[in-house]
């Protein structure tokens, strides 16, 4: 960022069932190892799009925030969800198991760069390389919630 640029930096709130909830700027997201993903996704309105993203693995960021599951138990980890919201209210959910190396092992990113341009002002973008469609590529991320559902009422 050029000196003298006073535009506010976008931040996201990482909250939910976490021992260490946090407010993170895009610069903070560079504290984690940066991964690169070259993706093509389809949009119902704009057609196929090709982009190169770089950023932190969502799995790494949430793991360091102290998720309230028993990390040694796969069955416990399989109960958890994430909800990711953008500044315009667009929001989507992922299961923890999509990201977890023992399950889907998907390289989902909180991107800090899009096609070589830093996202510090715009805000991080969710990147779901395994998705065929772009709807979960939430841009200008403001909130990442992590938690579990209460068990469904089965009438037992
Ligand atoms: N915040 C936010 N992110 C969003 C959307 C949105 O409406 N708001 N649309 C999604 C959809 S449907 C697609 S296909 C991709 C790419 O959208 P773009 O063509 O507007 O970049 O962004 C996704 N991320
Ligand atoms: Mo889309």
TrEMBL record:
SUPFAM superfamilies: Oxidoreductase molybdopterin-binding domain. Pfam families: Oxidored_molyb. InterPro entries: OxRdtase_Mopterin-bd_dom (IPR000572), OxRdtase_Mopterin-bd_sf (IPR036374). Residues 11-129 form the Oxidoreductase molybdopterin-binding domain. This is Molybdopterin-dependent oxidoreductase.
């Amino acid at each position: 960022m050029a000196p003298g640029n006073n535009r506010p930096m976008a931040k996201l709130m990482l909250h939910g069932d976490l021992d260490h909830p946090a407010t993170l700027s895009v610069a903070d997201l560079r504290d984690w190892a940066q991964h690169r993903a070259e993706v093509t996704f389809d949009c119902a309105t704009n057609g196929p799009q090709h982009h190169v993203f770089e950023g932190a693995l969502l799995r790494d960021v949430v793991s360091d925030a102290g998720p309230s599951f028993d990390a040694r138990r796969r069955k416990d980890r399989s109960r958890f969800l994430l909800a990711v919201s953008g500044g315009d209210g667009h929001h989507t959910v992922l299961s923890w198991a999509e990201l977890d190396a023992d399950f889907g092992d998907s390289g989902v990113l909180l991107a800090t760069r899009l096609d070589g341009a830093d996202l510090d002002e715009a805000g991080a973008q969710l990147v779901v390389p395994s998705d065929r469609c772009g709807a979960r590529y939430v841009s200008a991320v403001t909130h990442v919630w992590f938690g579990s559902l209460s068990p469904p009422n089965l009438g037992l």
